[in-house]
């Protein structure tokens, strides 16, 4: 298991590669649609960026708080709940969005669509007892 410093360094590399290649990266994200989701620390207010696999469903953008099936939600999820207005980078576009947690049947349908295109998300849900949150990034401009 990597420590927080190693994880931060890995993310920095992914972010750099993303920005240099109009959203295309290799490694563990190769071939997956990737977004850079900006978020602000719920306690610190510090801006952070999370590279996340997303689902584009008829122009709607969804991200998944899987944290690889960890028993706890990722920090970025708590941060977006606390401060939902933010920006996301997709390809070479920066989009203003509001993060909205999707629940109930709609959440289940969207999560199933993600599992169909990225089967590891089925594994993530099976590894944890929590329901993995689905977050829609609703465009507020453009």
Automatic annotation (TrEMBL):
<comment type="similarity">
    <text>Belongs to the F420H(2)-dependent quinone reductase family.</text>
</comment>
<dbReference type="InterPro" id="IPR004378">
    <property type="entry name" value="F420H2_quin_Rdtase"/>
</dbReference>
<protein>
    <submittedName>
        <fullName>Deazaflavin-dependent oxidoreductase, nitroreductase family</fullName>
    </submittedName>
</protein>
<dbReference type="Pfam" id="PF04075">
    <property type="entry name" value="F420H2_quin_red"/>
</dbReference>
<dbReference type="GO" id="GO:0005886">
    <property type="term" value="C:plasma membrane"/>
</dbReference>
<dbReference type="InterPro" id="IPR012349">
    <property type="entry name" value="Split_barrel_FMN-bd"/>
</dbReference>
<dbReference type="GO" id="GO:0016491">
    <property type="term" value="F:oxidoreductase activity"/>
</dbReference>
<dbReference type="GO" id="GO:0070967">
    <property type="term" value="F:coenzyme F420 binding"/>
</dbReference>
């Amino acid at each position: 298991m990597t420590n927080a410093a190693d994880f931060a360094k890995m993310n920095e590399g992914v972010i750099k590669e993303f920005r240099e290649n109009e959203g295309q990266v290799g490694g563990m994200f190769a071939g997956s649609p990737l977004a850079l989701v900006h978020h602000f620390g719920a306690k610190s207010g510090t801006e952070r960026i999370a590279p996340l696999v997303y689902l584009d469903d008829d122009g709607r953008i969804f991200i998944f708080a899987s944290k690889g099936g960890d028993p706890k939600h990722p920090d970025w999820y708590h941060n977006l709940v606390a401060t939902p207005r933010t920006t996301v980078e997709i390809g070479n576009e920066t989009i203003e969005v509001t993060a909205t947690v999707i629940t109930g049947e709609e959440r289940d349908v969207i999560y199933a669509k993600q599992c169909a295109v990225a089967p590891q998300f089925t594994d993530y849900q099976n590894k944890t007892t929590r329901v993995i949150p689905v977050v829609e990034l609703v465009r507020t401009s453009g």
